[in-house]
Description:
By secondary structure, the protein is mainly α. It has 29 helices and 4 strands. It has helices spanning 2-6, 10-26, 71-74, 80-91, 96-115, 119-132, 134-147, 151-162, 175-197, 201-218, 228-247, 251-263, 267-270, 278-299, 304-317, 320-328, 336-347, 351-364, 373-385, 389-403, 406-419, 422-438, 449-457, 460-467, 473-481, 488-502, 508-528, 531-544, 549-557; strands spanning 32-37, 41-47, 51-58, 64-68. A hairpin with a 3-residue loop joins strand 1 (32-37) and strand 2. Helix 23 (449-457) packs antiparallel against helix 24 (460-467). The chain is flat, with a radius of gyration of 32 Å.
Amino acid sequence: MARKVVGFGEDDLRALAGARSFERGLGYLDAVSGLEVGEGSVSAVVHGTDVYEVELTLGGDDGISGWCDCPYGQEGNFCKHCVAVGLTVLRRAKTIPRQRAVARARSSGLESWLSGLSREQLLALVREQIAEDRGLRRRWELRAAAARSDIGVVRDRIIALIDPRPFARYGYVEYGDAAGYARQVAEAAAALRAVTADGQAAQAVGLAEEAIRVLGEAYGEIDDSDGVVGQAAAAVAGAHLEACRVAHPDPERLAEWLAGTVLDGSNDVADLDPLDYADVLGQSGLARMRQLATEALQHRPSGWAARYLMERLVKAEGDVDALVALHARDLDPSGATHLHIAEELEAAGRSDEALAWAERGLRDCAAETYIDGRLVDYVCARYATAGRAADAVTVRRDRFRAERSLAAYRQVRSAARAAGSWDAERVAALTVLREEARQERGGRYGGPVLIDVLLDDGDVDAAWREAADRADDRQWERLADLSREARPGEALGVYLRLVERSKGPTGDRAYERLTRLLLGARDCHRALGSEPVFARYLADLRTELKRRRKLLGMLDRYGL
């Protein structure tokens, strides 16, 4: 019934959020307030670590989508706060039609009232609003200046809009203020387009270039983690390109400005691609830019900006050999540049040369602990296509011995199985890892990699033998999870030890882990036929942690 009314159900929320966020959302049902229902959307606030605004869009091709201003939600994820609002809507499904009707009535009433106002009344209303809202007044003043072609006023307004100082309370624009600043930059972009539309494209070109310079100087002092300022700056760059296509400025002067912007670092925020201007630059402009890029590379051969500019120009000319020579001047020790050269050669139909460059990359980077995994994958894929399975195993084995990681072990296993040589390769790989464990070097991120690979192979008995005095908590938990049925007594000892270590930390993740460990301990007691012992243990634990209401609520949901 609820699905018919609101257009979605719990399964849709779970699919959008994932099991983990959905379970977390259950704990926030009491934190939802201010639910407002519109024609095709629902908004509310959720009280979590902070107060977050949530909006769900209902209906449409996707059924439901959600937005939340929490950090996880701003990354485009359907977060636990969205889940909580969605579940609240489902629980109030019977009232939704009435609330929608009320919303429609409000909207209709506002539209009817505005339609009935005279010109004088509307002007009075507008004046009242711009007197109360400084931002609205500034935006409309800018539009008015653009409409009457007052370029001096427009310039002053644009510079004021992109000036970050009003947002820089401590000398820089913090994360929470970046969105407000981005809105002003977007307003500046709209004003530049308006100037072009009003027949003053040449003036818009100059104004946009000044705006891009100011943005480039300010960007280093802005926390633009969400990229909102970058998006707004790209709109300013788009307004510049639009104005150039209308005004047709001097090609060589434009080339000099573009090259200078790319080379001096001002391009970090606007992300200009010089080739977007190819139709405006023409042959003379492109030649001038090539000259400037060549001079910059001669002055600083390893300069990233100069190489980027030259790469774009050479690629546009279609000269693959020149592109290879450019990249070969500064080869990255990870092998990423070798791979890039190989991909360019393969795209040009020169597959043998491409593989030779990729193999050279493996040789040049053989001593490095880390190399670009895509380079290794590239070589091995081409070996497999050519029927060179043994060579692929050799490559994977060499990388495993350099990296000593679970991922590298898996790749050796996959390649050796394809070549029919896994039994011998496994013995050799485990010998390497046992020697590493004996030397107590440990894994890159915790306990010995040896235990991880044994667990990954499903060799639980061997993992138990190696775990003593070596495994970290993550490995112990994994070992216990795999041993609940076969070794319930030993697994129970692991779970109880980990529970004791997990009682101190607080927060959702800590409580989820503690709950997971207790579920494992309960399964072990069931296998041992000692459930009353677990019941007493759990009761004592709940008494000890009785002040953590969120934890107790989570335990209740799982029947603990």
